[in-house]
Amino acid sequence: MRNLIEFLWRYQLVLVFLFAELLSIGIIIQYNTFHRANFLGFANEVSGGAFNMVNEITEYLELKNVNEQLAAENSRLRSQQQSSYFSLRPGVVYFNDSAHLEQYEYLHAKAINSTVGKRNNYITINAGSEFSVEPQMGVISDAGVVGIVKATSKNYASVISLLHKDFKVSAKLRGSSYFGILTWNGTNPREAQLKDIPHHVSIKIGDSLDTRGSGTVFPPDILIGTIKEFEDIPGTDFYNITVRLSVDFNKLGYVYVVRNKMKFEQTNLELEAETEADD
Amino acid sequence: MINQIFQNIVRFIFLVLLQGIILNQVELFGFASPYLYVLVILLLPIEVNPIGVLGIGFLLGLSVDLFSQSWGIHTSASVFLAFVRHYTLRILAPRDGYVFGVTPNLSQMGISWFVTYAFVLTFLHHFFLFFIEAFRFEEFLFTLVRIILSTVFTFVLIILSQLLTYSKKRSQ
């Protein structure tokens, strides 16, 4: 017993160090499993407030770019309006008619803090639970896919950027129904990697990739990027594709949070089917 | 003594805010970031109990994590820094031991001592930090490049900040 106490006393510094290190690694692991929403929400509110203040100042410097971005988007949307289409045949089905149900709702927000240089990058946006932003909602910008909401507080939400170890999205080749999984390997913030596209599909540099819309996070046919280069993986049936991302995370401005109104219907059904299959 | 405690608390708050609001946004060449907050640990008086330094390191890392949304990553790195500081100080001790009440900064310890001390500790901290952040050894070389560039970046900022607050207290 005395030896034990002596031992503990002699190595107290090492023991306290190991304890503190275990504690912080515990925090890291805990946080990686997405169950920290409440705690993160509090931290978001504190740091979000500080970022907001800084952002209000820097916003002025960015006004010119933002204006251009908004104007470009306005013109694009205007060109999609019903009034911009010449009706060839009366009786054509319009998107807003009663035979169609609006599935996706978009809420605009501003990215007030974001990083690109880390292995795992996050974006803070200035819309939170007050505007019914919830975890697992998709975030896009006018250029394409940006990320997935991870945690929310009253006025802010923390978004996992596409440039993150845990971010995965189903990407579909435009004009075909082949799809693969897009991830980011941490090297270049303008490029991501696409796997699982089989050899027999003919692809070429410059082909566009869209979201598949199979999960409940992103609507289908949102641009992700274009093929920059590809190579065969020897010994497998798949390509290794490098994708040039359409979003430049270095100058992220306004973004849109996507609410899928039929999310619960889909996830419940899929869950039901799964549990039945297990029985 | 009271003055020294006050000075350290102010430095803690100032560097955490500086790191959280400004330095976290700085990314040289896209992947080298400065982590100047290590100065809080580096400049603690030598007499502070090593376990107390661990505690301060834990609080410091936690505060920086709060701004970086990187829960636990800076905490573990900064606890590690507090731990290795004890041994670094022991190895770098002058033959007659340290003068009581001395702060390990540039003006009191001299340039060659401080450069060794700051560079070694900054490198160890960054090494730990970047590997905890990546959490795997797959991209080893890339991570190493980031560590070295970031270390140099932080180190330059440390020396600059020391030169800015340089005072000729050494003659005392």
The CA-CA distance between the termini of chain B, in Å, is 17 Å
What is the tally of helical segments of chain B? 7
Whole-angstrom Rg of chain A: 23 Å
The largest inter-chain interface, given as chain pair and residues per side, is: A-B, 39 and 36 residues
Helix share bin of chain B: 55-70%
* Quaternary structure state of the chains depicted: heterodimer
Overall, the morphology of chain A is globular
Q: Using the 3D structure, state the CATH architecture of the domain at 169-247 in chain A.
A: Beta Barrel
Q: Any idea what the shape of chain B is? A: globular
Strand content of chain B: under 5%
Could you explain the architecture of this structure?
- The complex is a heterodimer of chains A (279) and B (172).
- Chain A is built from four helices and twelve strands, in the order αααββββββββββββα.
- Chain A is an alpha+beta fold and 279 residues long.
- Among the domains of chain A are: 2-32; 169-247, Rod shape-determining protein MreC, domain 2 (Thrombin, subunit H, Beta Barrel), CATH 2.40.10.350.
- A six-stranded antiparallel barrel of chain A has the order 1-2-5-4-3-12. A six-stranded antiparallel barrel of chain A has the order 6-7-8-11-10-9.
- Chain A is globular, with a radius of gyration of 23 Å.
- Chain A starts with a helix and ends with a helix.
- Mean pLDDT of chain A is 81; it is low at 86-95.
- Chain B has helices at 2-22, 38-42, 50-68, 73-91, 106-109, 111-134, 140-164.
- Chain B is globular and about 45 Å long.
- Chain B has one domain (2-92, 102-167).
- Chain B is built from seven helices and no strands.
- Helix content of chain B is 68%, strand content 0%.
- Chain B is mainly α.
- The longest helix of chain B is centred in the C-terminal third of the chain and has 25 residues, at 140-164.
- Chain A binds chain B through residues 12-13, 16-17, 20-21, 23-31, 36, 40, 43-44, 46-47, 50-51, 54, 113, 115-120, 122, 124, 158, 165, 185-187, 189, and chain B through 17, 20-21, 24-25, 27, 30-33, 50-51, 54, 57-58, 61, 66-67, 69-73, 75-76, 79-80, 82-83, 86, 132-135, 139, 142.
